[in-house]
Structures are given as structure tokens and as C-alpha cells.
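Folding follows sequence. Below is one example:
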Amino acid sequence: MTTRTGKRKRWLVGVSLLCALAVVTAAVVLIRQYQQEWRTTSFSVQEGWRASQVYEEADKALSVPEGTTKKAAERAARTGELKLPAAAKGNPEGYFYPAVYTVRSKTTPTSLLKSMSKRARERHAAAGARDYDTLTIASVIQAEANTPEDMAKVSRVIQNRLKRDMPLQMDSTINYALGRSTLKTSHADTRLNSPYNTYRHKGLPPSPINNPGPEAIKAAQHPTPGNWLYFVTVKPGDTRFTDDYAQHEKWVEEFNKEQAKGTS
């Protein structure tokens, strides 16, 4: 009897240990799953990023194949999930608001895009910028100027040119059409057959050319008073404005000299 009782006790102890081990293992698995589900990373959209840049960086942040987020955006825009205004004609450019977004394990390209477009609608509405043209102007300002002061002056140049029925002649819109970023625009570039070529076509480009931040949106609504029609950034931190074309040409020559220094 004693031997049998001892064996039974050892068996019960063994079973208890196995049960305890199973409980611990299950708990560890659940904890890991919980941590995995709630682990977060940050995805930051920079002011002035084009939609193409947003797609590229989102693919990386979500660890999905290249082109996945772009396809998701096209589908979401087509189905109305991004809630774009009619004026956008299904083009989400300008509606991926520059901000920091939280990415979790369950975040999908579509859910991330919807978060960005929702943030854009909220921020645009809060700023009173519900008009599509305002957003388009803000995107050009964002691409052409770096400081709030210069942004407000560029805004005035755009307004003055529109009022005079002059072409905007913004290099940034050509860069957008060509999918590049450069300070050098050639004569051949200005002959580009694209609705985004504001040398060739008067008025605003057909859509925003990037996702502008709050300062650019503010500048689009509140341009600095002035008669300026031309501006050129001779070198970083030195943007000059004038309504005199001859003076503008002199400054352009200075700009070209500064550019030559950088390539010599």
C-alpha cells in the first residue's frame, strides 16, 4: 500500500507540474500576442511630401510590398473611403496631412490612408481652408518657400499673377509633372506638355502638388500686402521679391552664379 500510495503521489505531482507548465506557456503566448497586437511605431508625414513619397514610406512602415499603399489609395479614392471633395476628381494629393501617425500590427494601408485623409479634413476645416483652390495654392507655396514670412509673400505673388491673368510660371509645378525636385529649370522644361506646366498654362495647376502644412495653408489665406510679381531664392535664406522684371532678371543672374559655384 505504501509503495502504491507513493507512486500515486508522484504521479499527481507530475500531472500538477505539467498542468502548471501548460498554464504558464499559455500565459506567455497570450502575453506575447497581446504585446504584438498593441506594439506601436510612428509614421511621420513631412510637410511638402507628395503622395508618391507618402506611399513609398508607408510601404516601408507597414512592411508591405512596394506599390501596395498606392494601389490601396487608388481603390479607397475610387470607392469614396477617403471622402475627397468632388473638385479633387479622385486625386488624393493634398489630403495626406503632415503629422505623426500611430502604426500597429493591425494597421493596413487603407486604414492608415483613411486616418491621414480624416486628419486633413479636420485640420483644413479648422483652418477655414475648405476651398480646393486654397489647398492647391498652399501646396505651391509649400514647394516654393521655406519660412512663414516668405510663404506669405509667395502667396501674394500668386494672387497678383492670377488677378493679372499672368501665368504663374512656378518651377515647382513642372518638377511635380516630371516627378523630380530640382532648382534648375531649363527652357525645354518650360515647354513641357502638361497641365501642371504653369509656364504654358495660365491659372492654377489641376490639383495640389504636395501635402502642405499649416503655415503654407495660413499663407494661402493671408498673403502679405504687396505688388510683387516675381521672386527668386538667390541662395538659402535669401529670397527676393519685386514687381520690376529687369530687377528680377539681375537677381536671376546672381542665382545662376550661385548655382555655378556649387558645381565648380
Observations:
- Residues 79 and 90 are 9 Å apart (CA to CA).
